[in-house]
Predict the 3D structure of the following.
Amino acid sequence: MSSQETKADLLRQHLAGVIDQGLEPHSKLPAERELATEFEVSRLTVRRALDRMEQEGLVYRVQGAGTFVAAPRITKSVELTSFSEDMRSRGLEPGSRLLIGETVAAGARYGAKLQVSPAQDVLHIRRVRTADGEPMCLEDTYLNPARFPGLMQHIGNESLYRVMETRYGARIEWAEQSIHASVLGPQDAEILHAPAFSPAFFVTRTSFDTMDRPIEYAESTYRADRYHYELRIQRNR
Amino acid sequence: MSSQETKADLLRQHLAGVIDQGLEPHSKLPAERELATEFEVSRLTVRRALDRMEQEGLVYRVQGAGTFVAAPRITKSVELTSFSEDMRSRGLEPGSRLLIGETVAAGARYGAKLQVSPAQDVLHIRRVRTADGEPMCLEDTYLNPARFPGLMQHIGNESLYRVMETRYGARIEWAEQSIHASVLGPQDAEILHAPAFSPAFFVTRTSFDTMDRPIEYAESTYRADRYHYELRIQRNR
DNA sequence: AAGTGGTCTAGACCACCCG
DNA sequence: GGGTGGTCTAGACCACTTT
């Protein structure tokens, strides 16, 4: 999965392993030219490996001095993952309960989000997403049914992203996400088994493929007592 | 500022300008080898320029086919900026009202965040941050006074980040940020001129320099009616 | 088959840090 | 001054898309 089989990536994996198995923070790595000789690759290839490791926060570089092991990180940068992956990475078992699955007229709002005519049908899926059986968020997803014919038959506990990718070849490449703080209305509170007016995240997300075509639009309400965001933010270069 | 004066960066700026001034989304850019010939640089230099443009979401590439103009973006990726820069980028005039500025014992919590002994003093600054005169957030900042002697004399309406960088040479390179949804307590509500129990973001941030030394720890409470987060998230490669 | 992006090489010069 | 990262060149082969 994460292996690209390129020399740069193999070197990156190797160096990451070496660092992981006992190199102290701020200890110096061999010079780029040394690594190039030792691993019989060009210096550019070494640099590509180190570039990525630097971006991941594994090492830092000081011009004229060298490349050094960075202090271990608590937080990872926000990544684009499905709810399922997200929960598993937190050590929770993801689940899902389907409330609604129907086609409705897109209307102005969802038509614009999915770049289809307002008169066209869109597929509306409403699910309660659970973690270890406990309700975590209420999610309304809108899709273009022309692109995913018969999708509802495949929706089980499997990740929606996985179904879209494996059965329809729709790979999500990036997404725009907007995060608002809110409180739970009485109805949402009941569905989420939480007190009314308790804090919540209201998140909208539009997902796109590599050609920038919108794949999915989703509105999610998260219980804030169970969910928060961790970001690692880099200074503009 | 944003110009690195490298050939790759000059080419990037030039291409960004060309795209900005009227190229339609999905129109094809010249091949990398063509660009290299035309601008009399090597192909690798062209690729570095395009790499960055791809990361910024200006173009996308399809192997075997070419490089294409991406659809315009609404959202920018989260960037590490000061409150002042952040507000200016939203077209608002940032302001600040100092409530507290004193040294206190670090204690376990802030000592750990700033990697100093719990018995050592830390500088605690509490400010109401305003946008166009309206309270936007309540911010408690903790700093190591040994690193910023006499800091309080320089705090005016100038950005704290600017003071730290210009007067103390402390340049923040990255930060870990944790975002929680919450509601305003009565006291915070009064300070922020908002109704009690209205939605709010509670954000903690630890800022580091290039050597991964903690510079600043801050806890901020934002009025959610005036603030939200826009993220652009990229798929893991 | 031709064109394009993805990867890689070997070598060069520069700017910066350190002993 | 020697070592290091930052940038750049000219050329090569591969994998993939398009014609």
